[in-house]
Design brief:
With 419 residues, this protein is α/β, with parallel strands linked by helices. The protein contains 17 helices and 17 strands. Helix 8 runs parallel beside helix 9.
Length: 419
């Protein structure tokens, strides 16, 4: 399926699968083992589960490659088995679902936040994700499910890794606090603004909480994401430890009862995360069949209002935005940013990157930026490096004399907004 086909497909309502990890634990997988190797040692358990989700109505099944990146496999001294494990796990998933559902290459957080200003850490993260993406592409996945992400920066790295290799569709979902803030950096709202411009074809939230606590976050994401489809994959309530195990208290009927509220909030891709079962997905399918989605008015989006995002804030600009005086990258950059935002609050500011040393200064101080950021450079290589460093979505105001083809490439690779 191409990105264009996926976007058209997502205009209607679709159903993801439910939990894998908690269901495998119920089936006997011990705590602390490498789930990827346990699955391959017990293939019938995974096959039966995925076929149960298929029977329940799931249209996208996640291949069991959740933790099959170099960092997480390294916890079990399997960091050199990325290619083989992803290949075998995707093959197992394909045997289970055939062509009756789309098979998603599942990717997740490494659990390591990127330190602000540490470009080498971002580059390392990019290499880690690219390694898994190459393996999943070789195995033949239909799309990528980048899920349970803990920060916007790691989402950017995963998406950039995928887009550097292919145009396969991407569904990206985060796990966040109840107010929408990410565990590492950024927020769900910022992610919804930023990630589609970088190449995500659908965005949303998974895990995090039960369906009763997720509505406000998905509404916020829907407002920020424009026409990008929104996905919700909540847990079956919050987990509770009982007799040494974990119990989820939201039964299928109660779980499915939130479908209407999610639909009204803009969700069109539904599923379940920890604690959900094929019964939850079947109940959700029945609930969705009773909803008239045409009755929900579309969220209005002014075409002249353009989403940008800093590392700290979601921002919207118009084509005639005033960027104020251009700020040079000097030892006073932090003070200049704060002064520009406090004393001349145009809602945007402009920083010039004119030489290599400016990049280090910019990287060190960019986290003070709250307003929408216009980046300027008359050197293509410097602008690209600055866009790589910036943990947000910047814009280009049309000044300067850079080649249009280069600027278009920056739009595609880094989400640069071209005014």
């Amino acid at each position: 399926m191409t990105r264009t086909e996926f976007s058209a497909w997502c205009k209607t309502v679709h159903l993801l699968d439910g939990a894998t990890g908690s269901m495998l634990r119920r089936a006997g997988m011990p705590a602390g083992v490498c789930s990827e190797t346990w699955i391959l040692d017990h293939p019938q358990t995974l096959t039966a589960l995925q076929r149960a989700y298929l029977a329940a109505g799931s249209e996208i099944i996640y291949a069991p490659t959740f933790g099959a990146n170099r960092v997480l496999l390294g916890h079990h001294d399997l960091q050199r088995e990325v290619r083989a494990l992803n290949r075998d796990l995707v093959q197992l998933g394909r045997e289970a679902v055939g062509t009756s559902a789309l098979l998603a290459g599942d990717m997740t957080t490494t659990g390591r936040p990127v330190t602000p200003g540490d470009d080498s850490a971002y580059e390392t993260l990019l290499e880690i994700y690219r390694e898994q993406v190459e393996a999943l592409l070789e195995a033949g996945v239909d799309l990528f499910a980048v899920e349970t992400m803990m920060g916007v920066t790691e989402c950017m790295a995963a998406i950039e890794a995928i887009r550097s290799l292919c145009e396969t569709p991407i569904l990206c979902t985060l796990s966040v606090y109840s107010d929408g803030k990410c565990y590492f950096d950024g927020s769900a709202e910022e992610a919804a603004e930023l990630l589609p411009g970088l190449g995500a074809d659908a965005v949303g939230i998974n895990c995090s909480s039960g369906p009763d606590q997720m509505g406000s976050v998905v509404r916020m994401m829907h407002r920020a994401a424009g026409d990008t489809p929104i996905a919700a994959k909540p847990n079956a309530g919050l987990p509770e430890r009982v007799d040494g195990g974990v119990v989820y208290h939201c039964p299928p009927e109660e779980f499915a009862a939130y479908a209407r509220a999610f639909a009204a909030a803009g969700v069109r891709i539904f599923g379940g995360c920890c604690g959900t079962t094929p019964a939850h997905i079947a109940a959700l399918r029945e609930a969705l069949a009773e909803i008239d989605f045409a009755a929900f008015p579309a969220v209005g989006h002014d075409p002249d209002v353009i989403p940008c995002a800093s590392e700290k804030e979601a921002r919207f600009i118009t084509p005639d935005v005033d960027v104020g005086e251009t700020i040079a990258c000097t030892s006073d950059l932090m003070e200049d940013i704060l002064e520009a935002e406090e004393e001349a609050p145009q809602g945007a500011l402009k920083i010039a990157i004119l030489e290599e040393d400016d990049l280090d200064i910019f990287a060190e101080n960019q986290y003070a930026v709250k307003d929408a950021l216009c980046l300027f450079s008359d050197v293509p290589e410097l602008l690209e490096k600055a866009l790589r460093l910036y943990q947000g979505r910047a814009f280009w105001d049309g000044t300067g004399d850079l080649d249009e083809a280069f600027l278009e490439e920056m739009r595609v690779r880094y989400g640069l907004v071209l005014l």
